[in-house]
Write a structure and sequence with these properties.
Layout lengths: L9 E5 L3 H13 L3 E5 L2 H8 L6 E5 L7 H11 L5 E6 L3 H9 L4 E5 L3 H20 L6 E4 L2 E4 L4 E4 L2 E2 L4 H11 L8 H8 L8 H18 L6 E4 L3 E4 L3
Helix pairs in contact: 2-3, 4-8, 6-7, 6-8
Length: about 240
């Protein structure tokens, strides 16, 4: 049984390989999760439009609707649903694209079932841990930026910015000390606790998408600044 205190969470497995669906489903059941297997993105999307799971594992290459297209569709109705991509070791472009369109994490096939379960727990624990650390101040305001820590919502100049779990955690990390540079290792440690390995390129992809969301609202947004050779910082005008 799982020991993280999160019970009956529904995890969707969208993969056209029956062996992967069955193996992952078995591992999820052993951890106390409820697996929801789907043969392709289209089958999953038909259900997701009515009710979303708590987390989704998406294979990138699938018939009818691939994982990238399904991710795009999911993000039109939910920015908060944690998403993990499954991809080939050789398809770096697909991995990076998956992160840029809204994925939170990825694993390369063939993958360790133990590592997949760890990544799933990390995503759930990030939300749980973040909420447990909330003090009296649920709203953080820095200039035109407002973060609702309890509700995982962000506004810029009073306009809502829908963020994924990972994007929210990265932004939260950057604004803790405005003007201070956070290197990629520091951002990984704060956005991906529990010693989960992710590459520098993964952080860069998330930051790129985070910036794009603000720029869609405000074309003059420059608050997330790249400090070349060092990392990133949140700059207050």
């Amino acid at each position: 049984m799982k020991t993280d205190g999160l019970k009956n969470l529904k995890v969707a497995i969208i993969d056209d390989e029956e062996n992967i669906r069955e193996t992952v489903s078995y591992a999820l059941k052993r951890e106390g999760y409820i697996p929801l297997p789907y043969t392709d993105g289209y089958a999953a999307w038909e259900v997701f439009q009515k009710k979303l799971p708590d987390l989704a594992i998406l294979d990138i290459l699938m018939p009818r609707m691939d994982g990238l297209e399904l991710c795009r569709k999911i993000r039109t109705i939910s920015e908060n649903l944690p998403l993990i991509f499954l991809t080939s070791k050789d398809d770096e472009f697909d991995r990076i694209l998956g992160l840029e369109i809204g994925g939170d994490d990825y694993l390369c096939k063939p993958f360790s079932m133990r590592e997949l379960i760890t990544r799933i727990k990390v995503l759930f624990r990030r939300i749980s841990l973040h909420n447990k650390e909330i003090k009296k101040e649920d709203i953080i305001t820095i200039g035109s930026l407002k973060l609702n820590i309890q509700g995982y919502t962000v506004t810029w100049k009073e306009k809502n910015i829908p963020l994924t779990v990972t994007e929210f955690m990265l932004l939260s990390s950057l604004i803790k000390y405005p003007g201070h540079v956070k290197n990629r290792d520091q951002l990984i440690e704060e956005a991906y606790p529990y010693n989960t390995y992710v590459s520098d390129r993964t952080i860069d992809s998330h930051i790129k998408r985070l910036r794009q969301k603000f720029l869609q609202i405000d074309p003059e947004f420059v608050s997330i600044e790249t400090v070349y050779g060092l990392g990133y910082r949140y700059k207050v005008k």
